[in-house]
Write a structure and sequence with these properties.
The protein is mainly alpha-helical and 84 residues long. It is 57% helix and 0% strand. The chain is elongated, with a radius of gyration of 31 Å.
Length: 84
């Protein structure tokens, strides 16, 4: 009978130990993710801001991002014709 009680106590303590290890593992994972998030936020805080305060996070080279997309001889506007 004493052996059975010791065995049950051992199983109980092993379960508690496993739960504690699991909880510590989850805590460390969340802490690491939080630290990585803060580092990325700090990197983005140095990014330039747009006209309305939004962050501009362009990863292209400055020369490529400032290159004209539409040539001067191409028009962006068309005459609107309403059809009935």
């Amino acid at each position: 009978m004493v052996f059975l009680l010791k065995f049950i106590l051992f199983i109980f303590l092993a379960g508690v130990f496993a739960l504690v290890l699991f909880a510590v593992r989850i805590y460390l994972t969340i802490r690491k993710a939080k630290q990585q998030f803060r580092e990325r936020q700090q990197d983005f805080s140095d990014a330039p801001q747009g006209e309305y305060g939004e962050r501009i996070t362009d990863t292209k080279a400055r020369e490529r991002s400032q290159k004209k997309i539409i040539a001067d001889d191409e028009g962006e506007y068309v005459d609107f014709v309403e059809e009935n």
